[in-house]
Amino acid sequence: MSRFSTYLKGQVRRLVLKRVGSNGIDLSQLDKVPDSLAWPLRRDGADPVPRLAELREQAPVAKLTSFLGLDVWLVTGERESRQVLADTTSYSTDIRPFMGQRGSTTDGDIGGLGFTDPPEHTRLRKLLTPEFTMRRLERLRPRIADIVERQLDEVERQAAANGGEVDLVPAFAFPIPFLVICELLGLPDEDRDTFRQLGSARFDVSYGGQGVFGAVSDSRRFLMEATRKQRSNPGEGLIGQIIREHGDEINDFDLGGLADGVFTGGLETSASMLALGTAVLLDHPEDFRRVGSDPTVVDRTVEELLRYLTVVQIAFPRFPKQEVEVGGQRIKAGDVVICQLAGANRDGRVGQMMDAFDTSRPVSAHLAFGHGFHRCVGAELARMELRTAFPAVARRFPGLTVAAEGLDYRQMSIVYGLESLPVRLEPALAPTP
Ligand code: HEM
């Protein structure tokens, strides 16, 4: 890291800490996120709450609230979000100054690419991207198809044992990305159960900072240990490959952090897309039928689902290092800027009827994977999973229907999703008169 960037980072950290008082902010100790800050994470079914669209109409960049002495800005416009996310110099995403002792670089609980600034971010991301090229990902394609088919067998088994009904979240949506990531990372079978348990609590802000950041620590520690074990005997997956090709450029702590970012970045997100995406398709039976029978519609159906659902509701918070101007607002150094991607993907300045799910709309770039240099590294892997799983479920169970009156949506989570998705494999027979 250059001396200048170290200096700059120090300055920003000092600035932030000065503004929040001598003890600093420790988000990990926060047991409840106030509603003035959290309301943009609420949804109304698949849709962002109407208040978000109203705000976007008035001001695509607006001051959301003041929180612990910091001004927090919400960006809901598409153009404005792109401007913030593409800016490589004005913002930091380093959250450690807000994490008290738990986030110090020495014990290093918080890590991964999302919370790391250039040039460290550039260095680490370069190690990871070769593992996500289409050429490397191709090796996973048959494994993904196999995992999907096996989970569909499991769905069938569970339904048969349960009068034709099954919950698709634990039987289908969660295990598919979980097993894909285990394959990607090269994790041995015996570690997989522990990982499964670490995945869920992480993004649920209803429990405040404790749940969110506590789970970060556990999964990172676990992956550091997995990395340490592979040092002497590198496996076939991502961890082993990086050790083989760049082992002397990265220590266990950083590689564990990268693996953790991949694990948590790719698990809840894809699981939510699979569950919510299936629910949306079941609500649009013609799209469900076509995704199973016409391969030419698969890619655009997946892109529309990604846009419409935008399950990662907000990008990593951006902390301006200097005064910036976005959407006509002046934002001070030390403020917090949150891009609300779900809102930006419904911005009416981008296309017609953006609140509708419409697989016939022209495919255009959306913000579901973010934008700029923190844009999702796993986007192509996620697409591969979704493009395999949706057609497979529609082909195997063309008579699938939701077996509940209303759906159990997750409350106030950074990654939006469904707690459960009860379905019937065949439509229920109408009672005979
Ligand atoms: C449908 C599934 C997914 C969605 C919607 C999604 C969305 C996102 C978003 C919005 C960001 C943040 C962009 C920003 O703040 O600028 C991100 C970053 C990231 N995602 Fe994903 N993601 C998905 C799947 C995956 C998968 C499968 C992996 C890996 C296996 C992954 C790994 C990452 C990583 C490592 C980052 C941080 C990149 C960086 O900071 O440079 N994601 N993702």
Overview of the molecule:
With 433 residues, the chain is mainly alpha-helical. The chain has 17 helices and 14 strands. It has helices spanning 3-20, 35-38, 50-58, 78-86, 120-128, 134-138, 141-160, 168-173, 175-185, 192-198, 208-232, 238-246, 252-283, 285-293, 298-309, 341-344, 379-396, and strands at residues 43-44, 47-48, 61-67, 70-75, 91-92, 165-167, 319-320, 324-326, 329-331, 336-339, 401-402, 408-409, 418-420, 422-424. A three-stranded mixed sheet has the order 3-4-10. Strands 6-14-11 form a three-stranded antiparallel sheet. A two-stranded antiparallel ribbon has the order 1-2. A hairpin with a 2-residue loop joins β1 (43-44) and β2 (47-48). α9 (175-185) packs antiparallel against α13, α13 runs parallel beside α17 (379-396) and α15 (298-309) packs across α17 (379-396). It is globular, with a radius of gyration of 22 Å. Residues 85, 113-114, 125, 181, 184, 261-262, 265-266, 269-270, 273, 311-312, 315-316, 341, 368-370, 372, 374-378, 381-382 line the site of protoporphyrin IX containing FE. Protoporphyrin IX containing FE binds next to α9, α13 and α17.
